[in-house]
Amino acid sequence: MSWVSKTLSSTLGRKLLMALTGLFLIIFLIGHVSGNTLLFKNDGGEAFNIYAKFMTTNPAVKILSYLTYISVLAHVVYSIILTRHNKSARPVAYANSKASTNSAWTSRNMGVLGTIILIFLVIHLQGFWYKMHWGDIPMVTYAGEQYKDLYSIVFFAFQSELLVGLYVLSMVFLGLHLSHGFESAFQTLGLNHVKYSPAIKKLGLAFSIIVPALFASMPLYIYFMN
Q1: For 3-89+105-225, which CATH class?
Q2: What's the CA gap between 12 and 210, in Å, rounded?
Q3: What is the pLDDT along the chain (226 residues), one digit of tens a residue?
Q4: Cβ contact 13:74 at 8 Å
Q5: HSE of 69, CA atoms in CB hemisphere, 13 A
Q6: What are phi and psi of 102, to 5 degrees?
């Protein structure tokens, strides 16, 4: 067995991979939310449609997209493996124990939060990513060049109260997941230090509030602006 397979099959290796994929997905969220803020621009969707075409045709971005898909799959798979391993290592709960006194609620329920986010991600990909690549999308022309009018797809999708509610609620769960996952990833990588840990914790808390809030504000803005 090679050192790579040994590492990936060990508990420490799995936690390391979880941390690395988690941090990569955090970087992805920063880029994704930054680009999507173009939805707020009052130009009929021109800036957003041009941005969307660049993100789907640029070779470097395509490579990053594949890395994102791989990271999501690895993060999900190894989270399931670690959860099952932890349960099998302690099949019987401690009698009269109070988990809430030993760990935060988010820490104890990362699997549940991750499952909810995964379900949301499937719905999100089916509603937008799948349509973007294979759906029948109207075209628009800017400066003599044609673009898929993805803005109109997003705009009409968020006229649904149910879909807007789903997105906002899912962002709450994302924030809870990030509030523990951000700090946990740095700890797993050994980057926790009495001098830096408080700053990492504050940064993680700010990130887990600001980024999900920005994502949630987009469907709300589109719904109420109409």
Answers
A1: mainly alpha
A2: 31
A3: 566 677 667 888 888 999 999 999 999 999 999 999 999 999 999 999 999 999 999 999 999 999 999 999 999 988 888 888 777 766 555 544 555 555 688 888 888 888 999 999 999 999 999 988 888 899 999 999 999 999 999 999 999 999 999 999 999 999 999 999 999 999 988 887 778 888 999 999 999 999 999 999 999 999 998 7
A4: no
A5: 7
A6: -105, -25
Global pTM?
0.89
Alpha helices (H) along the chain: 3-9, 11-36, 46-57, 59-89, 105-108, 110-124, 130-134, 150-157, 161-188, 197-225
Domain ranges of the chain: 3-89+105-225
- Name residue 69's amino acid: Y
Q: Nearest CA to 150 among 9, 28, 35, 3?
A: 35
Read off the tokens for 35: 């680009």
